[in-house]
């Protein structure tokens, strides 16, 4: 489907990554490429089909994973992430503590926004182009092909790899330069700028979000300003294994021996030997999380309330999330091979509970956290 961008209004002061009226020629091309369904095997799928501006550049339906391929009937493997607030993501590597951080996609295998854009263009279950030459040939037939040559050179289409790299570069610049990808105009942003007041429930939710003995959300979803005074994007870019339930709606999971192990594969193989990483996925930004339709890498949970409740009752009431044996015992962490079950985070709050204990958050406290999370939605009107 074709979509159009949506503006965000007058936002609080923040370092801007670009101005929609002053984007570079490459970025303007990137916008056309982003919204062009003719660049897919089906002729019906663009980047914007799964990353709709009206949904914070995420999906608009409630499918756990999206359908692609030549006939739009091939199921993907992972849930669609929002493309908002990715411009600050560092390249994949280790931080000062020795933990892997950064990179794009759920497993960080792309170091730049440009490299990230390559996967959907060529994936058999997404835009399903045969190869780079296939994408370039399609763009040569596009209405903006002459504009592409004007920006990147009259002979650019004679150099397939160079032309394809320019396509990726244009997509990257569009996401970097168009402020609609990072508007910083949520109620939280206005609150941080002293231009809006939080309700009592929003203040309680923020306190619970930050409290290391309650929600402890800020341990990974950083809520404080950066050292340079920049507004937070609510992720520390690290990786974690949360032991989320297996999603039986995914075709890949019909094979009982198949497991999506994140950093260990199947999409990336360079870290497969480091089994301590198996089952870890990147911590996403929580900006616009209240607009999301599905949650976690496999889209197994379909409401934000259930996602928060999973965090706080995964261990106190595992029977609510995982299948039961005939004797009533729970098959916890059923989407992680038994060999790697020890990789699941069971030490940090709120995961440090045992079955039958009180959850870290009461139902009323969950309500307050949900109210706070809604303040992270872009497009707030004071």
Automatic annotation (TrEMBL):
Q: In the UniProt record, which is one GO cellular component term?
A: cell envelope
- Domain named Cytochrome c: residues: 25-143, 200-377
Q: Which domain of life is it from?
A: Bacteria
Q: Which UniProt keywords apply?
A: Heme, Iron, Metal-binding, Oxidoreductase, Peroxidase, Signal
Q: Which PROSITE patterns match?
A: CYTC (PS51007)
Task: Tell me where it resides.
Answer: Cell envelope
Molecular function terms from GO: cytochrome-c peroxidase activity; electron transfer activity; heme binding; metal ion binding
What InterPro entries does the record point to?
A: Cyt_c-like_dom, Cyt_c-like_dom_sf, Cytochrome_c_Peroxidase/MauG, Di-haem_cyt_c_peroxidsae
PANTHER family found in the cross-reference section: BLL6722 PROTEIN, CYTOCHROME C PEROXIDASE-RELATED
Protein name (Swiss-Prot/TrEMBL): Cytochrome-c peroxidase
Task: Supply the source organism for this entry.
Answer: Undibacterium luofuense
